């Protein structure tokens, strides 16, 4: 098998049905550019294990959205079958169901069972730069654990080393892994848009302060210009860190370090 981790995600363009079953939409890899994407394949509609997964992800949707992640589920059924299932069995969910009718997307992501024309339970976490950062594929008889997917997502977003059984909110293995070189200095203007009580905002501010980087903090709770900036960009994930002319939405210490170095 060819390596996919660390490589650009295979492109795709699909017809899909909205999670409420009301609208047919077009989705592509670029639809999710700038956000984390949890892309998962399942074998088919109107089955037994699949609805337990789809509803579990929907129940935890807010947790994924708070981490600036979008969800997309894909099977080889048509968008019309998806719609019928939502209306007659599955019920409404909070994210789209994509229709890989040509089987090309399932094949491109290495999850296609060619003799059956269905996908294995493959799941991929794709970062905002469209790089695959995590992949797991397993037998179709076993449903996935949404909390484990969320744990891996949050671990990836730390940009640090996370050991076995790392839990959300705990410290990474090496606290100094976020340190920049001793002789580091920057003449770039740095701003950070935050809200009180945002743990991701606090961690980014601690990173900047710990490395001697001066920054302007914009409190979105009471700063009208800051709110207008967020609205104009369509940003929802916090914090938003602006380094020179570059804008980083969400908890992306890895990207912040990359732009500072």
TrEMBL record:
Query: Where would I find the Thioredoxin domain in this sequence?
Result: 3-158
Looking up Pfam families in the UniProt record yields: AhpC-TSA (PF00578), Glutaredoxin (PF00462)
**Hey, what's the signal peptide range on this chain?**
none
What does the record give under GO molecular function?
thioredoxin peroxidase activity
Q: Which domain of life is it from?
A: Bacteria
Oxidoreductase found in the keyword field = yes
Q: Which UniProt keywords apply?
A: Antioxidant, Oxidoreductase, Peroxidase, Redox-active center
Q: Which GO terms describe its cellular component?
A: cytosol
The GO annotation for biological process reads:
cell redox homeostasis; cellular response to stress; hydrogen peroxide catabolic process; response to oxidative stress
Q: SUPFAM superfamilies annotated for this entry?
A: Thioredoxin-like
Query: Does the record's keyword annotation contain Oxidoreductase?
Result: yes
Quote the InterPro entries the UniProt record gives: AhpC/TSA, Glutaredoxin, Peroxiredoxin, Thioredoxin-like_sf, Thioredoxin_domain
Family designation? Belongs to the peroxiredoxin family. AhpC/Prx1 subfamily.
In Swiss-Prot or TrEMBL terms, this protein is called Thioredoxin domain-containing protein
Q: From what organism does this protein derive?
A: [Clostridium] clostridioforme 90A6
């Amino acid at each position: 098998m060819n390596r996919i981790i660390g490589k650009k995600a295979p492109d795709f363009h699909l017809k899909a049905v909205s999670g409420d079953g009301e609208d047919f939409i077009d989705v592509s890899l670029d639809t999710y550019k700038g956000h984390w994407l949890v892309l998962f394949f399942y074998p088919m509609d109107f089955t037994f294990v699949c609805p337990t997964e789809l509803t579990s992800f929907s129940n935890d949707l807010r947790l994924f959205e708070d981490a600036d992640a979008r969800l997309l589920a894909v099977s080889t059924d048509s968008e019309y079958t998806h719609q019928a299932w939502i209306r007659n069995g599955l019920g409404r969910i909070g994210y789209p169901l994509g229709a890989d009718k040509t089987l090309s997307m399932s094949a491109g992501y290495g999850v296609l069972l060619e003799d059956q024309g269905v996908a294995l339970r493959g799941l991929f976490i794709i970062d905002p730069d469209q790089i695959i950062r995590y992949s797991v594929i397993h037998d179709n008889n076993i449903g996935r654990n949404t909390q484990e997917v969320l744990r891996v997502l949050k671990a990836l977003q730390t940009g640090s080393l996370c050991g076995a059984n790392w839990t959300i909110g705990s410290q990474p293995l090496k606290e100094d892994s976020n340190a920049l070189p001793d002789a580091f200095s920057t003449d770039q203007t740095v701003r950070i848009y935050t809200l009180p009580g945002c743990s991701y905002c606090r961690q980014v501010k601690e990173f900047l302060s710990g490395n001697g980087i001066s920054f302007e903090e914009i409190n979105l709770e009471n700063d009208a210009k800051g709110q207008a900036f967020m609205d104009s960009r369509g940003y929802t994930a916090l914090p938003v860190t602006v380094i020179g002319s570059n804008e980083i939405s969400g908890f992306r210490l890895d990207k912040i370090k990359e732009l500072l170095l």
